[in-house]
Amino acid sequence: METASILASALWLVLIVGTILVILTDEDDASGNKIAWILIVIIVPLVGILFYIVFGLNPRRNSKHEKYSEMFYEAFSEIADDETFSKLFSQDCKSAIREGYRELSTLLSHSNGTAVTDGNNVEIITSGKRKFEALVYDLENATDHIHMEYFYFRRDQGSKRIKEILMRKAREGVQVRFIHENIANIGISPRYYNEMKKAGVEVVKFTHPRFNLLKLSALLNYRDHRKIVVIDGKIGYTGGMNIGDDYFVRWRDTHMRITGNAVHALQYCFLFSFCTSGGKIRGESFSRMFPKAETAPGGGELVQIVPDQPVDRWSILQMGAVWTVQHASEYVFIQTPYFVPPEPLLQALKSSALKGADVRIMTPYKTDMSYMTLANKAYYSECMAAGIRIFEKKGNFIHSKTIVSDDYLSVIGSANMDFRSFQLNYELNAYIFDGKKAVRNREIFLEDMKECTEVDPELWKKRPFYLKLAQGAVKLFASLL
Q: Which domains does the chain have, with CATH numbers?
């Protein structure tokens, strides 16, 4: 009995030490979450080990996962015609980008990311009502196909209206494909989606079945946070708004309606999610998904659609955000509902402010999750010490995820400024290289500032000790939120 007890203790110690060694040997971890995981494993070993297996394993550390996106890229290159493939991946338009920003476009093209495209017309949408009305109109007028991929697809009034249109269009003969995220919609009964299937909608539950190591981790942790709509291969929507009345009515968010060559890039990203989640595409229908784009007169806006997924080797969206902040010479304004910056981004923000750029960050006064409100505020002190200005928006919760810099570069998409978006989620941002659109985004930021209160550094220092303690504690585990 004593021997068995000693053996069990030894095995348990080996398991704990082995888990810590796995954490320590993760060379890709630049976010500071190693300390948090090691603390959890030491303090509560059983829970810590289980949680690390499910939530902590870094898929980017295993280079073979990158092959999955490479396989899709290769399969797509065999099916797509030369013109479509060129529009998506050639660097022909890069010379049109202002000098100094071209290297950013090259960076964003890694990991099979699409290249910058021209001929685009981008409508920036800051009203949920406007997005709902425009989307309903475009869906009603679809004649060939509708592709939709969303993190949240609710069961409220606005969502049901969209669902009804999708089912009706499918009955009319329009090819409707729909991807819903696993965990985010776990409370929705399968009957909700079965109704869509019976109407002819091809419904796919997002997952990545090719994860052969601890599929539970992939299922629970790597979430599809993208928001994509493609209609007839000619009209695209992406940004921060999901399908639900929070986004259509109550919250302040930013979205885009796009026509032009960038729609093909959105289509490619949708097809990646659809096919790797088990959906099937008939080869003969492929060409219809990439019709010749109706380009905007005068060349339109330059737009680069940038997907990021945990199966790729590099965290491209984090690198893009760091580059954008570091290279801001005059200003960089950021809106994000969740501000838990990984260490590389935090250092970039501080160094940009210290060199004299006007760095402003806008977050909600209160988030939709109380623990994230605490996490957001945990970074205020060191940011303000470097000269970064923090603005808290009151009133309607701001869910917008945007960056605008130096009256030229705009970023609008699904990624928050946090570890989950940059490392664990399937995300998608649009980079817009255009002076007029950047000015418009700057104006939107300044308009939102009217509903904000700037955090006063001196008053912030005088906040109660228990808040300082709580914020310091949550900061230890911020990268795990």
A: 2-61 (no CATH), 64-308 (3.30.870.10), 316-419+434-480 (3.30.870.10)
Could you tell me where the DSSP H helices lie in 277-357? 316-326, 343-354
Q: What's the pLDDT score for residue 211?
A: 47
Structure-token pair, residue 444: 């939107």
User: Residue with structure tokens 């980008």?
Assistant: 97
For the chain, which ranges sit under pLDDT 70? 1-2, 4, 8-9, 12, 18-19, 23, 26-33, 47-51, 53-69, 111-112, 208-220, 283-284, 298, 476-481
Helix 262-276 and helix 66-79: axis angle, to 10°? Answer: 120
Rounded Cα distance between 15 and 17, Å, is 6
Instruction: Give the pLDDT of residue 187.
Output: 84
Looking at residue 45, its pLDDT comes to 73
The whole-angstrom distance between residue 17's C-alpha and the CA centroid of its chain comes to 34
Query: 308 burial class (0-12, 13-18, 19+ CB within 10 angstroms)?
Result: buried
Contacts 24+ apart (CB under 8 A), 182-189: 182/206, 182/207, 182/219, 182/220, 182/223, 182/224, 183/219, 183/220, 183/223, 184/151, 184/152, 184/223, 185/152, 185/153, 188/153, 188/155
Q: What residue has token string 């699409």? A: 114
CA distance 117 to 108: 13
Q: Are 97 and 256 in contact (CB under 8 A)?
A: no
The pLDDT, as a whole number, for residue 28 is 58
